[in-house]
Amino acid sequence: MRPLGASNDYARVSMQAPLEAAPARNRVRLLAISIFAILLLLAGRAVQLAFSGDPLARPNNAHAAIALPRADIVDRNGVLLATTVRAWALTAEPARVRNVVETADVLMQHFPGLQREALLRRLNNTAQTTVYLDRGLSEEQRDRVVALRLPGIGAELEHHRDYPQGVLAAHVVGFTGIDLNPQAGVELGLDEQIRAAGAEGRQVRLSLDVRMQYALEAELDAAARASHATGGAAILLDGRTGETLALASWPAFNPNEIQRSFESARRDRVSGDLHELGSTIKPFTVAMALQEEVTTSSELFDLSQPLELDNTMIADHEPITGYATLRDILTHSSNVGAARLAIRLGGARQRAYLDRLGLTQPTTLQLGRRQAPLAPPAQTRRDIAGLGFGYGLATTQASLASAYTVFTNNGARVAPTILAQAPDAEIVRTPIFTPDVTRQVMLYLRAVVTEGTGRAADVRGLVMAGKTGTAEKPGGAQGYDQSRNFSSFAGVFPANDPRYVIVVALDDTGAGEAGGLVAAPVVARTLRRIAPMLGLRVEPDRAAR
After folding, report:
1. Could you say which of 227, 249, 279, 333 is catalytic?
2. 2, 385, 419, 498: which has the highest count of C-beta atoms within 10 A?
């Protein structure tokens, strides 16, 4: 008979259970301690990264900085103008080269651009651990070097600056040296910004429009060749913002082939070359005289006779018969009339206006070469008169274009820039003339194009205004050479709602090649091409009868 109470088997189990539970609890405790330790280590690691950064990330960041030593440069619409690409350098360790002559022969078979004497000299230069034999190799050329298996010869990774548009906008963009050191253009003028943008992985956006740039360069090239000029310069501005929409120098060069170009072709002639401005300065002389109330729009002048000043005769090429107005002075480009107004104004006031117009300072364009003007103070009445019609002050075409922005801003000047401006950017405007004076002179400039020396710049439907300029170049027995001219045209359009400024100049044109004959037509042809890009309408020329 089984006694009341727990069975013996149950009793045995009950008695053994506490003995087995102890190891289980120990395992749980150990697991909990392990998890806590892991969490503690992770927390410590997070603190370390917060203060010191991830050491594995540092090489990656360093590699990214090296990969973008210079930012891409694009035009206002995002068209690529300059970029940094991977390239290779052909290198040699002279101490490891077994047979210098044989090595040189093999290399020249695969790289015919190498010069044998220079190659042998470098391969024999055992004083150097590594020497460079060629730079800017492509990936395919690098693979060819490796396949040759020449002792001591190798290829080293480097970076190379590439200009996808070639000659287009070359004087604006500029170029860099072998080690990406800037040499010209915005590459030099915006060097700090380009490096900073490269480090941040963003682009540098210029105000240029490559469509307008192409049109301006093509027309300047054709005109320079036709007139046998030695150089040419042209610039197109949005006169209200100061943005440079196109800028061209002639002759052209390819920044991808610097070694094949001449220094004369690489010269930026818009912001780097100085020339006396000739008659393109006369509108400012008239505006100064009106502003200072030394004349009025209704005054009549007798300009039929030359003006004698300090034993110098100032005369007009085609004297105006009868009485003339301020409008006639500009329309017929009278030196005598401009000289008389300048004398009334006086040297001090004249200089103050020239300073505020920006004609006596280097341009603000962010280019590598910004030449300071030759602007000596006027000492005599002859000097003052000469400045009044364009002699005695040598400056750049960029500065002249900046001065003409007064006609697009009701008498205030805007400094030009090569960088694209944000729509809400604050534009600094320097007041110089009153709106009334500015509008009055604009009417005269419109008459220059419709009736005067600038008729070749007229474009039907565009309402063009502007002024021709022809300055004899220094040289010859009389101080100037009548057979060599600097011919130009400075214009504003549309004249009924002025916004854009264009300046075109051709250097070293022959006798009789005045600005109205060689520069003004370039303006007309260029504007017919780019007007639709600016949202402006032009009308077809009337058919000849």
Report:
1. 279
2. 385
